[in-house]
Design a protein that fits this description.
α6 packs parallel to α8 (196-209) and α9 runs parallel beside α10. The protein has one domain: Alpha-Beta Barrel (TIM Barrel). The strands form two sheets. It has an eight-stranded mixed β-sheet, sandwiched between helices. Strands 3-4 form a two-stranded parallel sheet. The termini are far apart. The relative contact order is 0.14. It is an alpha/beta fold. The protein has eleven helices and ten strands. β9 (244-249), α10 (266-279) and β10 (283-286) form a beta-alpha-beta unit.
Length: 305
Amino acid sequence: MAELIPLSSIGVAGDSAPAPRSRRPEWLKARAPSGANYADVHRLMREKGLNTVCEEARCPNIGECWNHRTATFLLLGDICTRGCRYCAIGKGKPQPIDESEPERVAESVAHLRLRFAVLTSVNRDDAPDGGAHIFARTITLIRERVPECKVEVLIPDFDGNWDALQMVLDARPDVLNHNIETVPRLFRRFRPRARFEQSLELLARARAFDPHLVTKSGMMVGAGETNAEVLEVLDALRAVDVNVVTIGQYLAPDASYWPVDRYVTPEEFAHFRAEGLRRGFRHVESGPLVRSSYHAHLHVGAVQH
């Protein structure tokens, strides 16, 4: 077993971090994906010509989620127009937007008999609306085919195009998620072409549109931030009345990406959760393997009850 990092050597709210570990600790190990449901979801995605962020971003929870017959659909192709230094999704010049994609996603949601669907996308800065119309059309078609299915959208910042954001909001998703990802000090290096303040404004505009809409954001830790900075981000998210926050360990896809600074302990994640709840979040999903869509079906219920 990898050596546990004593909480006292880091400090739950400390400003320093130990040297990076070359070997992942035991709490970061996930089972290899397998099982009949996993195989069925994998087959369906290939038949429908769809992408999932589960695969493209190499999510460690893919086996668990797919065996529960849930998946996060990746809209607008699998090539992103931005060069974020933490993300495993392919980057470059994408293919033209597939206008028939919403129909195939809705068919897949119906086939899987989902009660909760998550839609996300690559950035499409090459499109005037950033692909917002595809989000809106997909929400509409899912509602037509599976009226009881709730829909979460994990959206990009649309490069500050608030008309594009409005297009998505007008389609009335149940959850509007936009990830803040990291702390202000690291933001521009971690997320080139994005701004911390712009992401906060997006979340604030979503709240202003509908006081009852569930808004959500997430961040990764272990990328060089301090624990004190994590708490400051929680404060910033609560200042724009975000309901739900997810916090997980940053894991570099390979050596060419932003390096892992440290492995955050389960005790620290528990502390982040407690601090988030104390600040007024209705739900905090905080743990080493947590990703934005992990247990997403539970988040809307936690806020509404």
